[in-house]
Amino acid sequence: MEKKEEPQINSASAFASASAYDDRFHEKLLQELEQQTNWDGRRLVKYDDFWYPLTIFRPILSTKKYFKAKETDIILSSIPKSGMTWLMALAFTIANNRSNITTTINDDYQIPLVLTHHPHTLVPFLEFNLYLHQENPNLEHLSSSPRIFSTHIPYKALPESILESPCRIIYICRNPLDQFISHRQFLLENKIEKDAVPLELDESFDMFCEGIHPFGPFWEHILGYWNAHLENPRKVLFLKYEELKEDIFSSVKKIAEFSGCPFSLDEEERGVVEEISRVCSFENLKNLEVNKSGYILGVLKNSSFFRKGEVGDWTNYMTSAMAERMKKLVDSKFEGSGLVLKI
Hints:
about 350 residues, alpha/beta, four-stranded parallel β-sheet, three-stranded antiparallel β-sheet, about 45% helix
């Protein structure tokens, strides 16, 4: 009997076919979805109950479809301007670079990478970096263990491999008023839509309270991770920005314990926790030259990721009536959840 030859699969043509299919799917999907214009002029698209910037909607879909988590991965998440950049510096230093953190550890002192690299270059963003220009990038070059990634994607929209694997998620949230002001100032400074005329503060706040903002509604974003934390606290660590500001020392130990790399008694006696808390304090990071100059992705100022970092800065911009409106909204949306945010 004549032996049949196995069909030869051309990997390049197979990838091209898959990419073309993704193109058609994406274009068709966009035609069916509701869209709005954010207060800063960027287009937003609503997908599965959340609003996403149109420019990264496809990378978000690619992340969900192609990202394969390893069981040792650590995923950092937040809604924009809730402390993500600070968390990147802390998580990276704790998990991957703490042997270089203090001169008391050894005689071969090396400068911690967080002092010479912007946190966004140490911890890659899934949708804003790795999947931004490639449908299915090869991540094998990311050989550090644990691998640490960041994202603003809501919990229910995360890749199945993240949700189903033993990998860990660290989420940080912030007072919505401070988050709103911080994000507004960030977008005004970077002006992504160069020709757009931003809406005034009150109109922007109206949209925020309606949940129409990047990765909003904020309450659904926060509650998604909060409920996941309640269901499996060993899978999801839930942090509050205000608590990190108040007691960074305890937060550093909590992050290390959760990440599977707790500090040894020897490290604690040598002051490693204190040194990480000092080196990675918001104030120290803000004043580093690497964080005061240059750009991320060619358009976002490094300095804009470390503006003030103050708790309650919203009082310098917003009225008491706005604060009362937010308090009522938060009380309503978070009622019965067990989560308390100080407004």
